[in-house]
Design brief:
The chain is an alpha/beta fold and 883 residues long. The protein has 5 domains: 1-77 and 270-298, no CATH class; 103-265, no CATH class; 303-492, Zn-dependent exopeptidases (Aminopeptidase), CATH 3.40.630; 494-566, no CATH class; 783-881, Fusion Protein Consisting Of Minor Coat Protein, Glycine Rich Linker, Tola, And A His Tag, Chain: A, Domain 2, CATH 3.30.1150. Helix content is 39%, strand content 22%. The strands form 9 sheets. The chain has a 7-stranded mixed β-sheet with strand order 12-9-13-16-14-15-33. Strands 2, 34, 35, 36, 37 and 38 form a 6-stranded mixed β-sheet that branches. Strand 10 and strand 11 (326-327) form a beta hairpin. Helix 5 (162-176) packs across helix 7. The longest helix has 33 residues, at 92-124. The chain is elongated and about 130 Å long. One of its GO terms (molecular function) is N-acetylmuramoyl-L-alanine amidase activity.
Length: 883
Amino acid sequence: MLQQLSIYLLKVTSISGLLFLYYHIALRNKRFHYYNRFYLLMAVAISIVLPLLKLEWFTFFSDSDQTIHLYKIIYGSGEHEVMVTGKTGINWEQLTIYAMVATGLVLLAVLCSRIIKIKLLKKNYPVQQFTDFDFINTDISSAPFSFLKDIFWRNDISLEEETGKQILQHEITHIRQKHSWDKLFMQLIMCFYWMNPFFHLIKKELYLIHEFIADEEAVKHADADAFAKMLLTAQFGKFNFLPAQSIFYSSIKRRLTMLTISKKPQFSYARRLMILPLITALVCLFAFTVKTRNAGNAIPVLAKPFVLVVDAGHGGADKGASANGMYEKDATLKIAQKIKELSSQYNIDVILTRNSDVYMNPREKSDFANTQNANAFISIHVNTNDKEHPKESGFEVLLSSKSDEKFATQNKVLGSAILQNISRDFTAAPSLQTRSTGIWVLKNSNIPSVLIECGYITNKEDAANLKDDAKIELIAKNILEGIAAYANHAATSIRDTIPANILNVTADKQPLYVVNGKPSSEAEIKLINEADIERIDVLKDSASRVIYGPKAENGVVLITLKTSAKKAQEPLYVVDGKIVSKEEAIKNEATNIESVNVLKDKSAIDKYGDKGKNGVIEITSKNAAKEPIVLKVPDNVLYVIDGKVSSKEEYNKLDKKTIESVNVLKDKPAIDKYGDKGKHGVIEITSKNAAKEPIVLKVPVDVLYVIDGKISSKEEYNKLDKKTIESVNVLKDKPAIDKYGDKGKNGVIEIKSKDQTGNSTSNNNKSIDVKDSNTKPIFTTAQIEPQFPGGAEAWGIYLAKQLDASVLAKRKAPPGIYTVTLSFIVDEDGNLSDVKALNDPGYGAGAEAVRVLKQGPKWLPAIENGHTVAFLNKQKIAFKISE
């Protein structure tokens, strides 16, 4: 905080110095008294206000990190790191701030006491009231002087003599010109900016200008003899009433000179007008921003590799949408291949789901993406118009509509970063979209994922873009730059949890990382969840080399995981339906494996309960794949064979070789579908014969039918060839009403049909009535980024008051600097959400930083193109533990 306050005061001093220098050269001792009075007052106001303004009229780009860093320090821009000391001894930074504030308060108290003293004088002497002023006749030696509308007169000066009349006119001029308000203003400024030498000089000059103006009114015709007689009539007093206007305040020589010099100095207008370019130049000094060239047109190269799976929508027999002489499958493949071609320039490793005109169903694509250990997944598609929206055009970025989506925030940030970059060069929807149909690849994804609709193939302008190689390249670059922006913001390293002064390493000199006694690479420790870390120890110098040899030359970082985290290192292995150890699983020869299926998160827990919380690897051997399916289930489970509730006996009679598929439902999904009968679990069995039969639905008369996204009648449903049905989805109660409003109150049947080639039409047609356009993007860059109310200085004051800096000291943290990087979303109204520590150096630092941020006030939201926007912000707080 002291650094930020010092930089602000330095800016104020610099601006006031430049403005006073111009006054001294061009305006001082010139008879522009009224202009000079206004100039000096405005110089003070501009000096104080200009450094507080955040203007970004111009942008300059630089390759120098030092230049960028210096700009951020001088102009207070970018991510602020707040240092909080955990030592209970003397905090010199706080003492300095307290001393500055105490000095200001003392000066303010002195000013108030002098004003009170003047007011008491008025009560002690007779007052004679006139139209413009009150006349107080006193016997004090410091009179005559004026303050606000009061003239304090000395009774030994005669009002009948000419000099007495001149003195009275002099004081009346001060009152009419309201000079006392100028003095009060300057005195208040000096209480808070007492350390600024130029404000002292400006105050002195302003007081002299007051006298120059009053002298001209009191002594007409520039009569120097009359001026001298007026001064000699009185004597100097013993007490100086600073807020008051004393006739004897200033240098007699300068006042006498001002009465005798020419009223028309050379270049009088030029001298006054030249202040305009000076002020313009000063404003421009605070109206620019400096960015790295990566923020302009250069390629933003990531510091660390980022793995991205890119899916080219459709393919093979599934042509997707078609119009204007092209197929969707060809356009998406061209974009995906161009992304792959350019990706190495960004240090992004792109893996394509297909690199030729082949077909993969959505499950195959999402399963493939989930097994690539990727950081993100994007699916490229092209939109198509329907009869109800014939003129729509432009790009759209879609998210999964699942309310319990694990990566909901990451998906929004990823989608926002891509949308923000695409919008620079192409027409695009202003907000992120959600869709409940046609995005199965997103719903099944176990990594952050979005679907990009690259324009409308039915729109001539969009179609022309998809045929233009230069536009295809620009689309690919925009997507990659969006990915890079997301990756840069999401990046965090385990090294952030290590006190900054303990290890002094570079990119070429890395420490040795040891996790639970086992040496690990930096890539491996990135996979560790910081919440699973129990403690971090650091070995340096000879101690590290004795234990770990030459590899420990740059120090050793010992990471100890919590007990639960140690177990979390291994997933659950299931071979041919049987849970086995890792050792047993890897005994299987690769040539004997029929298939491998990886389950994560909810899908793993749904199937295997708590055992599957760390993921499940299902291995099916070739021998087991040929065997009929045998189920071992409890006696009270509900059997449903070919859609009909059956008994265990009927199941036992079933020839297992005739089973086409088995679906197991447990807990809530089972009860939701079958009511109380399903409370012990449900086994749905579809025989091979039944699987070939058309789907027959028995439903109430007043149910709502939706065929391929279009609301239809029962008659249209009856006319539908049931063999062409791809899938049926039934919605009841609240889900049906939430999606279709009052029309869905009696239930909804959503039917997806196949096209003539037998492929699903769900990805070919734009979904209607299910898109939500209110998912606003979350920005990672903006013209004006969010800030704490009152700026960085207020943020520092808030932390100093609210943050418990002794948390680490109480937990016996070793000396060092412990930095916590906080991530949080500031929405359009300034509310904070998703507050978390991207790293936690331990000893309670992360939890304390999160607590203080959550309990704080609303922030000022980010602004982009004149509108407030949601913003994913980062803020560093550093705890310093001294020896």
